[in-house]
Amino acid sequence: MDTAATAAPRRIAALALPALVVLAAEPLYVLVDTAVVGHLGSVPLAAVAVGGTVLTMAAWLGTILAYGTTGRAARRFGSGDRTAAVEEGLQASWLAFSAGLVIAVGMQFAAGPLAETLAGNPEIAGAAARWLRIAALGAPGLLLAAAGNGWMRGVQDTRRPLMFVLGANLLSAALCPILVYPAGLGLVGSATANVVAQTVAGVCFAVALLRERISWRPHLRVIGEQLRMGRDLLIRGGAFQLSFLSATTVAARFGTATVAGHQIAMQLWFFTALVLDAVAIAAQSLIGAALGAGDAIGARALARRIALIGVVCGVVFAVVIAAGAGIVPRLFTSDVAVRDQAAIAWPWFVALQPIGGLVFALDGVLIGAGDVRYLRNVTVVAALGFFVPAIWTAYVLDWGLTGIWAGLTLFVVVRCVAALLRLRSGGWAVVGAVR
């Protein structure tokens, strides 16, 4: 492998920019959905906040599948075996579809109890449960698309994922306002548009696998290896979900306006986090390929460059978000009380961008290297030892969104320090086709 070409900014951009569009497509649709529903009133917006938080667990499961598949596929691709890299994607797709079916069916029974637990308000809980039962039907497509993104990134094919995901989400973004307003479906229309986007994307990735002309037979050995690697990513993702579910639960206890304002700021945070993660996607693919080819020196050089790019991107985001403080919340709601609550979270939201840009980039480096056990441990400590105690302390002391977003900032800072220490140690740069 050509180390200089691997670490070149042009090569990083060639992978990161298409990944940026793919990553932005889903959260951008969610932002459109939030804006459309927000004009139905504070209760529907709060319902989407609660239901969307539950479905975020499915999205995080998809992220786990994509990240784990990217690392393994990239190492095999770097070692010169593209067929084996695609086969990693096939086995991941079996896992994805199975998990999606479980979520789709399970939510038909669990939506009501989950919404009641999170909302703390019968009106919000009822609306959230109705939205969730329909939206969960898109889970198989969502997870199939995640697995497809994973193996295609691993073989450094970013064009087709761009077409599949962007096309599906543009279709759904057009459907959402039509179904909600002219069709008169309200929240049901919002959930239906969500299902359309995810199902269309999943079918596109399944067709791409068919065209690879490989056997579709499940291989339990490969699936078992993926599950072992995914275990640490799953625990890490579980720590994230516990944290964000707790934050929404605490915000709901402060009232409808607070949880609605938190929803606006949090969805924007998820959007910027995933957009900044485009650099991390490039890191996963290139770091995995470099280590698969036995190039530890090139991998370390690339990691340092990726970290710098992450910080620069975060600073740019911070400037843009600060400039939009008085404008952006108005796009999501006309309720003054909700906008006032979003304004409380805004300074924290701005400050998080440069730190987040760095930590997301370093996460990509370590995931691409297969160093997921370290990431698991750091995330669990940061979540259970810092974030969750901070937000529940905010509830007890009545600190509102200030306390919740201070806890989120602490969570990101702890992870950033730990990732920098790991990068400096060099212990993550282990070469070989599979770690």
From TrEMBL:
A GO term for molecular function: antiporter activity
Looking up InterPro entries in the UniProt record yields: DinF-like, MATE_fam, MdtK-like
Gene Ontology cellular component terms for the protein in this record = plasma membrane
Q: Does the keyword Repeat apply?
A: no
Q: How does it sit in the membrane?
A: Multi-pass membrane protein
Alphabetical keyword list: Cell membrane, Membrane, Transmembrane, Transmembrane helix, Transport
Q: Where in the cell is it found?
A: Cell membrane
- Keyword Transmembrane helix assigned to the entry: answer is yes
What stretches pass through the bilayer?
A: 12-32, 44-68, 89-111, 131-151, 163-183, 195-212, 233-256, 268-294, 306-332, 344-366, 378-397, 403-421
The UniProt similarity line reads: Belongs to the multi antimicrobial extrusion (MATE) (TC 2.A.66.1) family.
- What's this protein's name? Putative MATE family efflux protein
What organism does this protein naturally occur in? Asanoa ferruginea
